[in-house]
Structures are given as C-alpha cells and as structure tokens.
Amino acid sequence: MPLSISIPRRALPPPEATVPPELVLPLQAVALGGPTFDLIEFRAATALDAQAGDRVLDVALQRGLIEIVTGGGFRFTDDGTATELFARLTPHRPAAAHQETAGRLIEANASPERPLRHLLLAGDYEAARWLPSATRQP
Which end of the chain is more exposed for a tag (fewer CB within 10 A), N or C? Predict the structure, then answer.
C-alpha cells in the first residue's frame, strides 16, 4: 500500500501564492520524492532537458524556494512548500508520476534503490520485486 498523506486542501494557500506558475509543475514533480532531492532525481522527476531544468532550478534558488544542501543536492527551504505542492496533485497523479520517475532513473542507470523507492511509492510491488535482481551486476 503506497504511503498516503491526508492534508485538508482548503487549509493551504494556492501554490501560485508562493510558487511562480512556471515552476509549479516541475516543483510538484520533484516534491513527490520529499523535501530534498539531487540533480539526478530532479531531472528524472521533471523530464526537463538540461537547459530548461537549469532555468527552473536557477529561478527557484533566486526566489528562495529551494536551497543548496551541503554535500550536493537541494531542498525546499520550507517543508510546507513541498507539502503544499504535493497536496495539490489530483489523486491519480502521484502513482503515475512515481512510475515515470522510476523509469527515467532506470534509463539514467541510477543506483537500484532510487527507482525501487519510486516503484514502491507508486504501489507497483511486482516491479519492485523484479528490480533488484534485474540490476545485479554479474
């Protein structure tokens, strides 16, 4: 059973109040994985090419929506922003987004635990069982 968070939608300000409209979709995609992420996770979650992705990260950094984490990666400066973005997704969207992100992580040859986590969050337990054996090195 996928992890489920119940947040009253009316209690949250609209994402547009804190996040510029052009950043809502990409930051929503990356917020699915939680408040911290790295460049591989960002690219896999958003499916943006390097140039467009860099623009999103630059604007998000300039606006103070995310910050650079010591040792690499990024995090939302306010955990509420990640929660707000996640809560605004329609109920069917998270599972599909996790599946897509897992597929992109596999294509990027990310370490197996990364796509495995997304498959589990998507509720795809059959694929999650298959992944570790498929990625073992001979």
Answer: C
